[in-house]
């Protein structure tokens, strides 16, 4: 079964109410490939989730950018998976490198979060990726495998998991992994899943690329055999996000 192309837009900590309305209007008016070709998910900050959910076109879906590792309670400032389910938010991004780096989220903590979110019925975009120092030391696959293993140790059903490979050195820096570099890691990740989880999970799990994806490089990146879509940062706030969604056509015509 062909893996459906997936394009996620991570708005990060950006936007005012008016700006969010403008972005949603741009998305709602866009001519993009149908849902059987591409799955589109946008991830606004928590405070704008209800606004986006209620005004966004029905063929696009909404994700939160994070959620707490267990049931809610005395965890000031956190948002629980149950709350997202209650708001009918279907997706959540977990393990983003900014949270791993700035908030010291460990592989094990991220793995626990993924397992808990899935258990509550959420779908998860699980992020992995190496720093520039780790790449230059030749340990890219060791790092990415350890991050993925922490999830695999806690998750048995992968049908609601999308893996986002985001080389940390390429996020917001303008540096992009070359199509060959992206394909190499995606291929190795798929082989790791086949060996350590199952051939079926390796064949069906979507592995998307993130890291300075834009309208100019998306078609070449998307044309790689094991690149199943994108997690887009800064460009998801701009009209070129539409061009990135349209890159799904490269798979359809392949």
SSE layout and pairings?
Elements lengths: L4 E6 L6 H13 L8 E6 L5 H7 L4 E5 L16 H6 L4 E4 L2 H6 L4 H13 L3 E6 L3 H5 L3 H13 L8 E5 L13 H18 L2 H6 L1 E4 L8 H5 L6 E4 L7 H7 L2 H4 L2
Parallel strand pairs: 1-2, 1-8, 2-3, 3-4, 4-5, 5-6, 6-7
Describe it:
- With about 250 residues, the protein is an alpha/beta fold.
- About 40% of the residues lie in helices and about 15% in strands.
- It has twelve helices and eight strands.
- It has helices spanning about 15-30, 50-55, 80-85, 95-100, 105-120, 130-135, 140-150, 180-195, 200-205, 220, 240-245, 250, and strands at about 5-10, 40-45, 60-65, 90-95, 125-130, 160-165, 205-210, 230.
- The protein has an eight-stranded parallel beta sheet with strand order 7-6-5-4-3-2-1-8.
- The mean pLDDT is about 95.
């Amino acid at each position: 079964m062909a893996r459906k192309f997936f394009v996620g837009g991570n708005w990060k900590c950006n936007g005012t109410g008016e700006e969010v309305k403008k972005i949603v209007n741009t998305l709602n008016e866009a001519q993009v490939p149908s849902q059987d070709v591409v799955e589109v998910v946008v991830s606004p900050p928590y405070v704008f989730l209800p606004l986006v959910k209620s005004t966004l076109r029905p063929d696009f879906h909404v994700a939160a950018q994070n959620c707490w590792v267990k049931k809610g309670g005395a965890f000031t400032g956190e948002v629980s998976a149950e709350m997202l389910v209650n708001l009918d938010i279907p997706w959540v991004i977990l393990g983003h490198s900014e949270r791993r780096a700035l908030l010291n989220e460990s592989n094990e903590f991220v793995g626990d979060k993924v397992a808990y979110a899935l258990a509550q019925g959420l779908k998860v975009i699980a992020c992995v990726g190496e720093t520039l120092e780790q790449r230059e030391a030749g340990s890219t696959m060791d790092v990415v495998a350890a991050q993925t293993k922490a999830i695999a140790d806690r998750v048995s059903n992968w049908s609601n998991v999308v893996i986002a490979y985001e080389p940390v050195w390429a996020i917001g820096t303008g540096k992009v992994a070359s199509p060959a570099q992206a394909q190499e890691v995606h291929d190795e990740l798929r082989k790791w899943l086949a060996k350590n989880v199952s051939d079926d999970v390796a064949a069906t799990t979507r592995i998307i690329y993130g890291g300075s994806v834009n309208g100019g490089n998306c078609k070449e990146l998307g044309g790689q055999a094991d690149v199943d879509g994108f997690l887009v940062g800064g460009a998801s706030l701009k009209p070129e996000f539409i061009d990135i969604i349209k890159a799904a056509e490269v798979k359809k015509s392949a």
